[in-house]
Amino acid sequence: MGSLGLVTPQSMHFSEPLPLRSGARLADYQLTYETYGALNAERSNAVLVCHALNASHHVAGIDVAGRQGWWDNLVGPGKPLDTDRFFVIGVNNPGSCFGSTGPMHPNPATGRPYGADFPVITVEDWVDAQSRLVERLGIAQLAAVIGGSLGGMQALAWTLRYPDRVRHCIGVATAPNLSAENIAFNEIARRAIITDPDFHGGHFYAHGVLPRRGLTIARMIGHVTYLSDDVMGTKFGRRLRSGALSFGYDVDFEIESYLRHQGDKFSDYFDANTYLLITRALDYFDPAAEHGGDLARTFAAVKARYLLVSFTTDWRFSPARSRELVKALVTNRHHVSYAEIDAPHGHDAFLLDDARYHGVLRTCFDRIASAFASP
Amino acid sequence: MGSLGLVTPQSMHFSEPLPLRSGARLADYQLTYETYGALNAERSNAVLVCHALNASHHVAGIDVAGRQGWWDNLVGPGKPLDTDRFFVIGVNNPGSCFGSTGPMHPNPATGRPYGADFPVITVEDWVDAQSRLVERLGIAQLAAVIGGSLGGMQALAWTLRYPDRVRHCIGVATAPNLSAENIAFNEIARRAIITDPDFHGGHFYAHGVLPRRGLTIARMIGHVTYLSDDVMGTKFGRRLRSGALSFGYDVDFEIESYLRHQGDKFSDYFDANTYLLITRALDYFDPAAEHGGDLARTFAAVKARYLLVSFTTDWRFSPARSRELVKALVTNRHHVSYAEIDAPHGHDAFLLDDARYHGVLRTCFDRIASAFASP
After folding, report:
1. Does residue A247 sit at the B interface (CB-CB below 8 Å)?
2. B216 CB near a chain A CB, below 8 Å?
3. Under a CB-based contact definition with an 8 Å cutoff, are residues B22 and A247 in contact?
4. Residue A234 phi/psi, 5° resolution?
5. What is the pLDDT of residues B186-216, one digit of tens each?
6. Which of A51, A314, A322, A345 does the annotation list as catalytic?
7. A260: how many CB neighbours lie within 10 A of its CB?
8. What is the reported pTM?
9. ipTM surpassing 0.90, yes or no?
10. What are phi and psi for residue B322, nearest 5 degrees?
11. Is B347 assigned a catalytic role?
């Protein structure tokens, strides 16, 4: 299996406003994206990869700053999502902070950064933005949409919103909506950011400061919930950093040191308004809401074939949530495969290179590829 | 079953310094406590109730402000811990903020509030302070020590530290130490408090402010971890407060409203330095550490009879942690009973009136009472 080597992001501008679920419109925007592999003559081998909270268009390969793509273990020549056979698209969602139009960019209405005035955007809005990009790339129908966590929600939304434009949906460690507990963790993270005095109601750019305290707390909460109790026990346990208790409130345990480091690092590069916006998109995703909460009715008219994958120790997007989706699809006699992977890594498992997990994805993509000639 | 009616706290002063595990000493201190029922002639019917993070000496009855004790459903005339038969003692631990000497009290060395200079105190230190109080009350041996969560850790520590002075140990929803995940949540709560600009390094009293933002975040995190995903789903689910999404970051979901309310309420009355101190006592409790982590060796020489109770949906102090204790006691052929209660309420279950749970405690206290005459 090889690496894609150096990859270069591209940018596409959209002057037609994007109508949003909130009723607002995104006036004028651009999307940053990367593609890997070649589109075949039939334009039938395109796979869209949707990102979750803390990721971007940079899915695979090495960017100009030397950073490896976030799903590089999955996507590349000879890898489960094989770029020798597929044309893979990674796109940064609007509202994010990695290139596409977001809160730190100028609001055309005022000329100043959007900040807190950037409209609240939803999973469905992202899918609409992605569909315009896919269309402009000349792709009438995607071979597959794949995503993990929030990315999986986008993959599900594609099949509901554009049933004729996607043949396969691969949702990893995802859910039909967030539970109260998940919303609670998001809310705590948002409160930590919003109540940070350096947040300035979301207009901190103008004050030359960053709400680092709040972002750090938000990231620490996120980290704990992405891991399992088991893996934290194995990785850190009760190990002390210096071998003895300090009888104070600085770092005693290695887990404290790890979390502080993760929080600090994150607060250097992640945008606070983007954090609010993306957690809200997670909270709001609930396609069954307009069907009286009936998931089977929600998925009645879809046309894609589904693969759902969950991980036994994932308590944020538990296997039970994937099984709800499987049940809704089976009720409708749709095509669905489901793999529940016994992995210790909690929600983070969807980003890791587990042999059984990647084996399932490889088999799935092999089957998808068998339907078309190599490019 | 009756109520104890109005109860009045008492106070006891200790001029002999309390040596602490850290090497520091608590110079001169007082303990606030309440007692219910009457000590029998043999002084053999005393039960000590140890409190957890957010509680106090006010275990049962109604105080002068009209507040019900935190374990009033368990303690009172005719209740499972029957004050017609037992002499029950509730004591506020030093370092807490409900009457006993704590960070908001004057440091005799400076005349100003201790604030951040209040020494870090441990479960073992609390037990030493409690044992002095019990001694002064003329009780050579307790019939039982009972506590839930952090209170259960104190009950365990009593049997290790004063094996001849306690006949029964009842530990509910407790653990032999905290897991890395638990320490992580405590650390996030502490960072939220310490990085609040109004914390002023723990000396906020002198600035006339309270670190409300940090305390609010800390309490919100606590609340989510005390409940189970199930009970949050049942109690709140995805219900909206106003029936429609706001497409903003104010309260949309009922769970958000609940958490904000709990956080705000808590930040009005709870001391920030106490929060740091009590979460650190939780982190530091690990009696097996000085026995190479061997829990069986740790509990080799104890003399008490044990009852341990856990709750199936408690993910903060899970049944598996209680079973570790049971195994260590059984290995040593000590007396131990264990009840795993199938309850949906998570860690909070230890404070609730569940028929099976209270039935187990009633049976246990009936057996204990059968050994002595009523007072």
Report:
1. yes
2. yes
3. yes
4. -70, -45
5. 999 999 999 999 999 999 999 999 999 999 9
6. A314
7. 17
8. 0.96
9. yes
10. -65, -40
11. yes
